[in-house]
Specification:
Keratin_II; disordered N terminus; two-stranded antiparallel sheet; 204 residues; coiled coil; Keratin_2_head; alpha+beta; 6 strands; IF rod domain-containing protein; IF_rod_dom
Length: 204
């Protein structure tokens, strides 16, 4: 811009990215301006510069261009690692749950097999009662009754085992939930400590 006294003005802008620094220099009709910016892990925009000079004679800013120093420690990446003890505990939990699931599936298969066997024996028993004589029925009845009673005892034992496995499964689920809560609390504390560490590094 040209004024009545022949003064001229110029504007310039600069910026810095990441941990570097940058500057800009602009010429405007015989005048010169500058702006500088620097930052670590961010984006800064330097303010505009403004100088005045005589016609055709640019003037440098007072003090010249200043050197920007960056703390290299702020550019180093953070070493974030998960506690191996937490990983070991979670791996044990998964193995225990897998074992319980396998036991439960095996128990279900046994119950179904015994139920099928019981139905087969009942069917055979009905056929024998219909086809055999009274003597034959009397001779076979104790044998089948004993076998059926044995199957019923096995079924009762499996039912009791199922109750025990259900209780173990609930206890394991409660334990997993407790470890999950502790793990989340540990992650939150670690995140808070890392944030405080970053703030302290910026203040250095």
């Amino acid at each position: 811009r040209v004024h009545g006294g022949g003064l001229r003005s110029g504007y310039g802008g600069g910026y810095g990215l990441g941990g570097g620094a940058g500057f800009g220099y602009g010429m405007g009709a015989g005048g010169a301006g500058y702006g500088m910016g620097g930052g670590a892990g961010g984006f800064l925009v330097g303010g505009p510069g403004f100088v005045r000079g005589g016609p055709g004679f640019p003037v440098c800013p007072p003090g010249g261009i200043q050197e920007v120093t960056i703390n290299q420690h702020l550019l180093q990446p953070l070493n974030l690692e998960i506690d191996p003890e937490i990983q070991r505990v979670r791996s044990q939990e998964r193995e225990q749950i897998k074992t319980l699931n396998n036991k439960f599936a095996s128990f279900i298969d046994k119950v179904r097999f015994l139920e099928q066997q019981n139905k087969v024996l009942e069917t055979k028993w009905d056929l024998l009662q219909q086809q055999g004589t009274q003597v034959q029925r009397l001779n076979l009845e104790p044998l089948f009754e004993g076998y059926i009673n044995n199957l019923r005892r096995q079924l009762d034992s499996l039912v009791n085992e199922r109750g025990r496995l259900d209780m173990e499964l609930r206890n394991m689920q409660d334990m997993v939930e407790d470890f999950k809560n502790k793990y989340e609390e540990e992650i939150n504390r670690r995140t808070g400590a890392e944030n405080e560490f970053v703030v302290l590094k910026k203040d250095v």
